[in-house]
Specification:
By secondary structure, this protein is mostly helical. It is 70% helix and 1% strand. A two-stranded antiparallel ribbon has the order 1-2. It is globular. The relative contact order is 0.06. Keywords: Sigma factor, Transcription, Transcription regulation. GO terms for molecular function: DNA binding; sigma factor activity.
Length: 420
């Protein structure tokens, strides 16, 4: 591949990563079929790789891709009249259900992603499939990346995605924003999907980089859209607040050489104070007016970290109390892991380690490197270096990104300088 072709491929890949969700959502809105939308979106990318090296990258690449994909879809439908009739019926039902005008930006590509989010979060779909489906098709993550996000094997995730798409087709789930009465059953799935995107952006599941800022910022943008659409939903405010309070630290999480910098060692002057202030105001919204939701509680925990001058002055008793609330709302080994680390900061490493050891048999924590890494850190603090080294090696084998692995290598060297 020559230099120009390589540059063009890079441009196409960058555009596709940026425009994937909007392109796919616009195609599903027009044709009512996710499989068809996927196929013609891929064909549009192939056409871009063919034409852009000759004609140059267009000024509105997203609109170019959409126009090309639509033409390919129409060609397919003309060749299959029975298929066309079925899709026309689905599209007509979707249009009758939601006649709201789409949002467009300067690129001319309509933003239909909220509709697709709610489609993927439909209650007819199994709860475990909703976020995964949305993460794959709205954020453009690969199937292995989605599998890592959900801590399951890639083959399991691939089967889940196929099953979820089949369910959408067979149940003829409409492509629309739900009515207000439907929101309580539909919104949690959408929020989980958005948060999954942010999580992958904040801490990438694999690759050379610790963070994928494009995904984190996309999740925040989508949460802002949800906030504008659903201003009275406190959990939307909680989710947006949580992401802002965490993302405010992104610049301090990476050292000069790209290394991971943990919270206790971060230069807090590099945190984005405007983002923190906005996040704190959203925490107040999320916690006012009744029992808080999980995102509001997590946002309150993040706010306590952001308000502290350093790790020692963090209000650890309040952090533990909030984790108690969160664990009651959403019992999960991952929440219990985070609570154990907070207890270690409040009561000492032995107390935290005892709680972590109680979680040793939890299936969800198998393959989850923060668990052995947390144990290693507490064992290190207790001077149990041989055990700490073994736990660091386990975490090192499981870590997905190179900055995480390099950080763990450094910690391992501190307890076992002879480790090769």
């Amino acid at each position: 591949m020559d230099e120009r072709a390589a540059g063009t491929r890079s441009s196409v890949e960058a555009v596709f990563r940026e425009e994937h969700g909007r392109l796919l959502a616009a195609l599903v809105h027009r044709f009512g079929d996710l499989d068809l939308a996927e196929d013609v979106a891929s064909e549009a990318i192939e056409a871009a790789l063919l034409h852009w090296p000759v004609d140059g990258v267009p000024s509105r690449p997203g609109a170019w891709l959409l126009t090309t994909a639509r033409r390919r879809a129409v060609d397919r439908l003309r060749r299959d009249q029975a298929y066309a009739a079925r899709l026309a019926l689905i599209a007509a039902e979707a249009e009758r259900a939601d006649a709201a005008a789409p949002v467009s930006d300067d690129d001319g590509l309509p933003d239909e992603r909220l509709r697709l989010f709610f489609t993927c979060a439909h209650p007819a779909l199994p709860a475990a499939d909703r976020g995964a489906l949305t993460l794959r098709y709205l954020a453009g993550l690969t199937t292995p990346e989605v599998a890592r996000a959900y801590l399951v094997p890639t083959a399991t995730m691939a089967q889940r995605l196929v099953r979820a798409k089949r369910k959408i087709s067979e149940a003829r789930i409409p492509f629309r924003v739900p009515e207000p009465a439907e929101l309580p059953g539909r919104l949690p799935g959408v929020l989980q999907a958005v948060y999954s995107i942010f999580t992958e952006g904040y801490a990438a599941s694999s690759g050379p980089r610790l963070q994928r800022l494009d995904l984190a910022e996309e999740a925040i943008r989508l949460a802002r859209i949800l906030r504008g659409l659903l201003p009275t939903q406190r959990e939307v405010a909680g989710l947006l607040g949580l992401m802002l309070l965490v993302h405010a630290r992104w610049d301090a999480r990476i050292g000069a050489d790209g290394e991971l910098v943990l919270l206790d060692a971060q230069d807090r002057t590099r945190w984005d104070r405007d983002m923190i202030n906005e996040g704190r105001s959203l925490v107040l919204v999320a916690l006012t007016g009744g029992t808080p939701g999980p995102y509001g509680v997590q946002a309150a925990i993040a706010a306590l970290h952001d308000e502290a001058a350093d790790e020692a002055s963090t209000d650890w008793p309040q952090v533990v109390a909030l984790y108690d609330v969160l664990l009651a709302l959403t019992p999960s080994p991952v929440v219990a892991l985070n609570r154990a680390v907070a207890v270690a900061m409040r009561d000492g490493p032995e107390a935290g380690l005892a709680l972590l050891d109680e979680l040793a048999g939890e299936a969800q924590l198998r393959g989850y490197h923060p668990y052995p890494a947390a144990r290693a850190g507490l064992l290190h603090r207790l001077g149990r270096h041989a055990e700490a080294a073994a736990a660091y090696r386990e975490a090192l084998d499981l870590a997905g990104t190179e900055p995480e692995r390099e950080h763990l290598r450094g910690r391992l060297a501190a307890v076992d300088p002879t480790d090769g």
